[in-house]
UniProtKB/TrEMBL annotation:
GO terms for molecular function: ATP binding; ATP hydrolysis activity. The lineage of its organism: Bacteria, Pseudomonadati, Pseudomonadota, Gammaproteobacteria, Cellvibrionales. It comes from Cellvibrio mixtus. Residues 4-226 form the ABC transporter domain. This is ABC transporter. The chain holds residues 2 to 227 of 315 of the full protein. The keyword Nucleotide-binding applies. The keyword Transport applies. Keywords: ATP-binding, Nucleotide-binding, Transport.
Length: 226
């Protein structure tokens, strides 16, 4: 079973603009997969649909075989999503933001505390656990987004332009972290408009342009074609 399977996915905004023109895509378990494309290609729309934040016009999405429409709660357990924009409350403390997410996934208190500690430590945020989110640097906020997405132990992690606007040093450390969790078995899909990021991290890549997948291949063979 693919970690992610998308079939004939379409999105029409405002009944006139076709942002996704029927895309299909499979990502296999264990893969580190890039969705590469310029601004406006449809990357965020695709992620929005997978995470049920954007309503699709047509098509199907399955996460480890679970249809996001008919089997939403099962699909949701497999999935962690890191959107591009910070969407936690800036007034809440770091630890509470992650704990609250664990609660959404039905973890009991001790499990939630344990997993929160684990991921805050992994992302070097444990010292900041009692700090309100608004006091964090941009890089720390981005790491908080990742800790929150991982707290329920998803097998598939999807990140929307995780290193956009991130300085080179933090980018390197985020890359190392993502490589580690992929090596430990988590399937990762990230969107990017940097070929360099796909090249450095990913095994397979789909190139999306104007709502169409124009190439779907290994990163190695993409580089040979350039
Ligand atoms: P709704 O239809 O749910 O009221 P909109 O579709 O107007 O919401 O907008 C949803 C979000 O997408 C908003 O944050 C908006 O700023 C953004 N948005 C709207 N139009 C565009 C566009 N053409 N390109 C990119 N983002 C857009
Ligand atoms: P990417 O993430 O690749 O930059 P998006 O998925 O954000 O692309 O956008 C794809 C296209 O859909 C763009 O042309 C964008 O302007 C448009 N779009 C995105 N969100 C909205 C929205 N809420 N309402 C109308 N158009 C949108």
């Amino acid at each position: 079973t693919p970690a992610l399977s998308i079939r004939n996915l379409r999105k029409v905004y405002n009944e006139k603009f076709e942002a996704l023109k029927g895309i299909s895509l499979d990502v296999m378990p264990g893969d580190f997969f890039a969705v590469l494309g310029p601004n406006g290609a449809g990357k965020s729309t695709t992620i929005g649909i997978i995470s049920s934040l954007v309503r699709k016009t047509a098509g199907t999405v399955e996460v480890f075989g679970k249809n996001i429409d008919t089997d939403f709660s099962a699909a949701k357990k497999y999935l962690g999503v890191v959107p591009q924009e910070f969407n936690f409350s800036m007034f809440e403390k770091v630890q509470d933001i992650v704990l609250q997410q664990a609660g959404y996934y039905g973890m009991n208190r001790s499990q939630a505390l344990q997993q929160t500690e684990r991921y805050l430590k992994q992302l070097s945020l444990w010292d900041k656990r009692d700090t309100p989110a608004r006091m964090l640097s941009g890089g720390m906020k981005r790491r908080l987004m990742i800790a929150r997405a991982l707290v329920h132990g998803p097998q598939l992690l999807i990140l929307d332009e995780p290193t956009a606007g991130v300085d080179i040093e933090l980018r390197r450390s985020m890359w190392d972290f993502l490589r580690e969790i992929n090596a430990a078995g988590t399937t990762i899909i990230l969107t990017t408009h940097y070929l360099e990021e796909a090249e450095s991290l990913c095994r397979n890549v789909a190139i999306i342009d104007q709502g169409v997948i124009v190439k779907n291949t290994s990163v190695k063979s993409l580089l040979q074609q350039l």
